[in-house]
Structure formats: structure tokens, C-alpha cells
């Protein structure tokens, strides 16, 4: 599903990524771990096409994203990649249902189709009765599950998550972590998760360790 070859990235004189080669299979739940400053988030942003590498290639579902024009890349990102961040980033003026529907609207879906898909996801996550509530009326765990539903609304092949449970208590962390596997089993998505959570890393299909902008192959667990 994801092939990363020879990725380098610098910010000024600081080289953040130093030649990353990485292959992730369809349907895998993979965690990326390592100390702060190792380059984990930068790698995730490049895989997600939110940033461009200085060199190297990223191929997602058979498409070399580096060869796409700006407009084509934006369309590809919206259709094929979903994002979940540490802080839910829901729009406060919209309900949970409307927040989930927004990416579908951007993707050209009609209101009926977008609403049906959004409600399907909210129901799967046990939030059907919260669909009409705005973010300030939801708990932290509920907001993060709405954010996950929003990431899934366009049927993306890949979900990229950056510290998705970092702001949650232990109960909500456990529920969110289980949700990733339930979603993989139901919808077949590939999950790539940057995390400092040792328990989450221990239950993923594979744990990738990064140190100083490189993969620590000795400590990477298959």
C-alpha cells in the first residue's frame, strides 16, 4: 500500500530525514516510535503528501504522488488518505454529523450521500445519539471518535494518525486503540500511527523505530 524509498528532508541546515526506505502492506496497523526529534511527524507528513521530500519517492496504492500536480495531489489526498491528530480539530460551529460530512462535500458528494455515510460511521462508533451535538457538548473521547469518523468518510485506503490518543485518559485511549483494529477489520484500511504510547505500539502489527532521522532496523519489530 505504501512504498517509501530514499526519503530525505532538511529544514535549513538541519537534516531531519536521512534516507528512509519503508514498505507498508495493505491492511497493516503500523506504529512509528522514537524519541522527540527523530523525524516521525515529518515522515508522516511526507507520506500524507502534506510536505514534500528533498529527494526520494512516495508511492501510495500504486501512485507516485511526487509526479502529481498540486490540484491532482489535493484530490488524491482527499480521496485516499485520512488524518487523525492528537487534538481533534473539529470545527466548533458545526455538529458532529456536519464535521464528519465536510470532507465528503469537498470530494463532491451530495448531501444525502454524505449524510448517509457519516451516520453509518457515527453509528459504528457508538455515537449515533450524539450526531446533533457540537464539539463543546462532547467528551474528549467522543470528539476523537468523531475525528476518526471524519477521516474515514471518503473511504480512504490509508489512515495516518499523529499521537491520536495523546490527549485522552486511559479508558478512552484503550477504546480508541481498539477502534483502529475494529475499523481495519471492517473497512480494510491501512493505519500508520506515530505514538509515544508503549501499549499502543505493542499491539500494532508492526513497530517501526526511528532514531536521528533514520530507521533503527535492529529494534524494528515485525
UniProtKB/TrEMBL annotation:
It holds the Pfam family ABC_tran. Residues 2-222 form the ABC transporter domain. CDD domains: ABC_MJ0796_LolCDE_FtsE. PROSITE patterns: ABC_TRANSPORTER_1 (PS00211), ABC_TRANSPORTER_2 (PS50893). It comes from the Bacteria. InterPro entries: AAA+_ATPase (IPR003593), ABC_transporter-like_ATP-bd (IPR003439), ABC_transporter-like_CS (IPR017871), ABC_transpr_LolD-like (IPR015854), MacB-like_ATP-bd (IPR017911), P-loop_NTPase (IPR027417). GO terms for molecular function: ATP binding; ATP hydrolysis activity; transmembrane transporter activity. Keywords: ATP-binding, Cell membrane, Membrane, Nucleotide-binding, Translocase, Transport. This is ABC transporter ATP-binding protein. It comes from Hallella mizrahii.
